[in-house]
Amino acid sequence: MAIEYLNKRENKKFIRTLEVDGMRYFVTGITGFIGSHLKKKLEGEIYGLVRWSHKKEKINGFNPIYADLRDYHAIAKIIKDLQPDVIINLGAITPVSLSFEKPFEFMEINLIGAMNLAEINQRYNKQLKKFVHASTPEVYGIQTELPIKETASVNPNSPYAVSKAAFDMYLFYMARAFDFPVVLARHANTYGRKNQTHFVIEAIVTQMLNSGTVCLGDPKPIRDFMHVEDTTDFYKVLIEQGKPGEVYNAGWGKGQSIREVVEIAKEVTGFKGEIVWNTIPGRPGKIDVIELDATKVKNAFGWTPKIKIKDGLKKVADYWREKDISSSTS
Asked: Residue 280 domain-assigned?
């Protein structure tokens, strides 16, 4: 089947022949952190959305389709022709601190772009069995009862969280009105990146391996950290077994403060240098604690994370010891 895709922003056409036998997955954000790991665990035909603006690099393990979520007509053409069985929506702009500077861009991508994908599938995809969407625990905001259950009120505390919460609400409306088969994933802060060093776990480990001084922000926030292998296993469970209309948390239920993570990282890396705190300005409306109750997914499917923080940090350190840190993107 030859399908012609048009990118209206650049007035370019892209023609690709698609083989459409068996289970078909359409994954947004497939070249991102979680998507690049998840694609290795999927069995079937995998088609991934790649933005035209994405840097050109070798693509393997999936069939790339070039378009932008914000381009309704391009996405509609793709979905009409491909008729995927499962949508996995990982595509988003995610740095929370950046959302305060660029709130309109976050809304345009995380809400309007995502709405395009959902509405198009509702209208034109008769084969859709499941729409797995990457939400975020940031939508819970500041909570007094910890760990946070899926039944907690949504209380977003940043433009990023508002953009994600708004789309969550839109998907719930679609589920009620049209039996749209959405499954929402809210998982702990994921680490284990292999090409970025500015997220907190990677920043801590790479600075310890590459410098005598580690510069960090506030040591007090507590987060429920989870290794990417556990996160992608969680997604696979939801893809295969998640019940439409439901939201599932994933995490340990008890987190570590950034200071505690630093102490564990010292042990793993052998770092003996200086830690300098509060070198990064705090963001407005910061959330002191995010710890997720994952009882629901454990009881329903027997899933729990497996890689504890010390073992996960060792994996990160082992990787970055073998990589030229100075050449990595930030």
From this structure: no
- Three-class secondary structure of residue 219 per DSSP: coil
Domain range for 148 = 2-189+227-253+291-306
Placement of tokens 């910061």 in the chain: 286
162 belongs to a structural domain: yes
Q: Mind giving me the DSSP string for 66-99?
A: E--TT-HHHHHHHHHHH--SEEEE------HHHH
| Residue 217 predicted with pLDDT over 90 | yes
Q: What pLDDT digit, counting tens, does each position of 181-192 carry?
A: 999 999 999 999
pLDDT in tens, 144-153: 999 999 999 9
Q: Angle of helix 309-322 relative to helix 200-210, nearest 10 degrees?
A: 50
pTM, entire model: 0.90
Instruction: Fill in the amino acid letter for 80.
Output: K
Closest residue by Cα to residue 158 from 129, 128, 185, 137: 137
Q: In terms of DSSP bridges, do strands 190-191 and 86-89 run parallel, antiparallel, or are they unpaired?
A: unpaired
Q: Is 241 helix (H, G, I), strand (E, B) or coil?
A: helix
- Joined together, the tokens standing for residue 105 give 């861009």
What are 244's two structure tokens?
Answer: 């439409």
Residue range 287-306, pLDDT digits in tens: 999 999 999 999 999 999 99
How many other C-beta atoms lie within 10 A of the C-beta of residue 278?
A: 11
- Please report, for the domain that includes residue 86, its CATH number: 3.40.50.720
**Based on the structure, what is the number of domains in the chain?**
1
Residue 137 belongs to some domain of the structure? yes
59 part of a folded domain: yes
